[in-house]
Design goal:
Multidrug-efflux Transporter Regulator, Chain: A, Domain 2, 2 domains, 2 strands
Amino acid sequence: MINFSEPLTDLKKLEDRDYKISEVADLLQISPRALRYWQENDLIIPHGSRHTSERIYKPNDIKRAQHIKELQGLFGFSLHEIKQILQIEDKISNLKQAYLKDSQDKMLKTKLGQSALREIIDLINLIDKKIDRINHYRNDLNEKVNLIEGFLKNG
């Protein structure tokens, strides 16, 4: 069971080495099954294995897994939404790398910047939809509070 009430682990001090699935699960306070499930849903891809079928994680894989945990637990995104978010974030990261790599071609840099802007706007729109759904639910709850308070006041 994933414990979302616990604070997220500070991963800035991770050693640059390979980590076993059990180590990652302990670090993030999640089950190894959660990591396997995220892998089955193409949210995270471990860097392979040593000599067995054991999954090996690098520090960046662990940071991505922590990000997934945060998106799922803290923000309440579904796995489908998380996959969309990660795909957009990966596109933005790739565009940034391409932008920094080719510093001479101003036309290309403009196109890359425009593409990154579109991706960020898509991500904001996805988040706004989640916020709208949460606000709608909150409003429904407030209506129930008002009804119950009215009932209690009027007997």
